[in-house]
Write a structure and sequence with these properties.
This protein is mostly beta strands and 328 residues long. Strands 12, 13, 14, 15, 16, 17, 18, 19, 20 and 21 form a 10-stranded antiparallel sheet that branches. Strands 2, 4, 5, 7, 9 and 11 form a 6-stranded mixed sheet that branches.
């Protein structure tokens, strides 16, 4: 009798196992079309592209068909610029602080195709976004907002979740010198009080001005300051002499640089991950003064800034694409 029960149990198990396997032959999820553009903590997707003076660079934005089975249709996916979503993001995040708002990337800086094809037998494709970023002012926070256009006649369904059918791409070109520098060795003094305790910033973000020039904000001014554009300090790197030349646009900040700033580049391979290159850029002898004339109404405050700036860039030498190889 026990043998009969045992055989019955085995046959029932085989039947259930066979039924479960058959279920996987059918689609378990919907075939939705989505962007691959994960959001960061600011609600956007930062894309890093090499700055090329008067040249074009192409960013490939991935398209994905979701589901547990292979897409069996040739899909022509329609893409459009979506300023409405950007407006909603700005208001929900910043309310009436319009100086914080992201700006829609001007059409002169990019071109995108109206459609992209995902061929049958494939679940992924890319959209080629051509960028020409010469003269872009990165003191503005530029966003290229895109959406997948949905229409019953198109033969596909855009993902109903907005974070998947939308892409809010923050455009961040880089050159050899741009990035986030450590500010712990850069001391900020009230002018005339250089022997007293300094102010120190932990990090100093820098932005591309051209292929050999970056800019940062003077002293304690940062990207959240309403008057940040007035306090842009440009640093030009001369590869031959290794001299860094500083300058400013706004004469009202009374910018003046002293001495000769020198930069050096050191490269060290990682001890634990031998494919990882650590590239350090050090700017020595930073020494300048400027006047803050807008933070306090009817008052001017002058500062002296002295010290060293250091940036580390981690590069995975196994990845051929430069923007993907850098660990941002």
């Amino acid at each position: 009798m026990k043998k009969i029960y045992f055989l019955f149990f085995i046959m029932a198990s085989l039947f259930l196992f066979s039924s479960c396997n058959d279920e996987w032959k059918d689609e378990q999820y919907s075939h939705y079309v989505s962007f691959k553009a994960p959001l960061d903590d600011k609600g956007v997707t930062q894309i890093n592209v090499r700055y090329k003076a008067a040249g074009k660079v192409t960013y490939q934005l991935p398209l994905i068909v979701s589901g547990s089975t292979i897409n069996n249709s040739n899909l022509t996916v329609h893409i459009a610029v979506d300023p409405d979503t950007l407006q909603k993001l700005n208001y929900e995040r910043f309310q009436n602080r319009t100086d914080f708002y992201y700006k829609e990337l001007e059409s002169r800086f990019y071109s995108i195709p109206e459609t992209a094809t995902i061929p049958a037998g494939e679940n992924t494709s890319v959209i080629n976004i051509d960028l020409t970023l010469e003269d872009i002012d990165l003191s503005d926070k530029w966003i290229l907002p895109l959406t997948i256009v949905d229409n019953p006649s198109y033969g596909y369904v855009a993902n109903p979740r907005k974070n998947y059918r939308k892409a809010l791409l923050r455009i961040m070109p880089f050159n050899d010198y741009s990035g986030i520098y450590s500010g712990t060795a850069l001391k900020i003094f009230l002018k005339g009080y250089e022997n007293e305790a300094p102010i120190v910033r932990s990090e100093i973000p820098t932005f591309v001005a051209d292929d050999s020039t970056i800019f940062f904000y003077a002293g304690m001014i940062d990207e959240e300051n309403i008057d940040r554009k007035k306090y842009k300090i440009f640093a030009h790197f001369d590869e031959e002499t290794k001299i860094v030349s500083f300058s400013a646009e706004d004469p009202n900040i009374k910018f003046e640089a002293f001495g000769t700033a020198i930069f050096k580049v050191d490269e060290i391979m990682d001890d634990v991950r031998p494919y990882l290159l650590h590239r350090y850029i050090t700017i020595n002898n930073v020494d300048y003064t400027f006047t803050d004339y807008s933070t306090v109404s009817d008052k001017t405050i002058s500062y002296t800034v002295r010290g060293t700036l250091i940036m580390e860039r981690k590069i995975n030498t196994q990845i051929p694409d430069e923007d993907q190889a850098i660990e941002w």
